[in-house]
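Annotators were shown the component list below and the corresponding predicted structure, then asked to write short factual statements about the assembly.
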Amino acid sequence: MIGAVKAEVSKLVTLPSPAITVALTWAVTVLVRQADPPGGAVPYSQAGVLVLGVLAAGHEYQRGGQIRATLLAVPRRPLLFAAKTVALLVTAGPAVFVAALLAGEPGATGGLLLDLLLAAGVATIVRHPVGATAVVLTAYQIVVPLIRNGLPDVALPPAPVWSAAIIAAAAVTFHRRDA
Amino acid sequence: MVSQVRAELLKLLSLPTAWVGLVLGLIAAPALALVSAGGTRRAIENGFHADASDAAFQPLGIGLLGALILGVVVMSSEYTSTGDDSPGARQLQATLAAMPRRWRLVAAKAVTLSLLVTVQGTITAVVTLALNRVVLGDLVPAAAPGRVAGAVLYWVLMGLLAYALMLIFRNGIVTLTVLILNISVVSFSYLLTKVTPLAAYLPDIVGTHMFLNEVGDVRIAPLTAGVVMTGWVVALLGLGGWMFDRRDP
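Structure shown to annotators:
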């Protein structure tokens, strides 16, 4: 397990795209905070965190089919999925905390980490980074605000329930589906 | 040119993601008009809208997502690798072997996208506005044909904007993130209008003046808005085409 987590961490740390996403998220958060938006800067950092989650899980499915090499090295899929989740939390956790600090709301870290895991889960299910980005951003920034404002009578389950459901669905599909 | 447009149309319509964009664009706005009918009715009755006719057009600003996806897919599909075992080979290389003149390829894709989004936008606008008349009755006045045309033109120009950004960034994630955020509640362009009034002339903000009467605090005539937005899109397409012309496929 430790070896698998270490391998996943080194993959995440050495890829350029997550690093660029983190840098852009920090920069955008700082800039947006200067403009003092009505809802705070967190929704903007959230967009970056969602993209980060998608990239972290989705990079295996980009050109080259890296996932098959990964599964050859770690064939036990539940173990690999757990290792990926732990590695994502360990590497992206500090980055997300810094983003929340920059947004001026360190308390938002927990919520952002749930968003991160949810985005990673969606990317694992969709297996297509661009498509997964479209899905999570549309859901978070357009559909949910619309439902909240337009249909106040609909009770939405809280964020942890959503994240847990998506992660469970991702774990099951990852376990059962052909790579 | 006709055969090139036909080839591009055939390619685009055989992509599952393009159909997601097409269908999403067609159903999102009418569905939104239906589910938010109660809220819209309350907003109009409470005098939230200074101009009630805007309420009928508002769902079109979100259904736009379909046109954006089409604009991204028309180019991002070319950069997808053709197979897992040949990550270096992209669809674009086959396309360029068939159509070596790059500016003509850029133009053929732009024409294909415009045709498709015009059809999609017209159907969506007519259906959404008709639905609004049914569910809201006389609360909203009948839509002026000029404004409907403005809304369709906005869709086409936003689709072309997405295509231009794809040509520049060659990355669907960057383009989609920027554009989806900008049509959502946390729009960067809208935030910028709070910082400087000049931001009202950013392409996605200025274009809405073609079919909405109250956008922010600035009033811009529909014709001016159309000209400014077209200018932005032409300039960005020019830049994207120039970069596409120079870069290795």
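Statements collected:
1. Chain A touches chain B through 28 residues (CB under 8 Å).
2. The mean pLDDT of chain A is 88.
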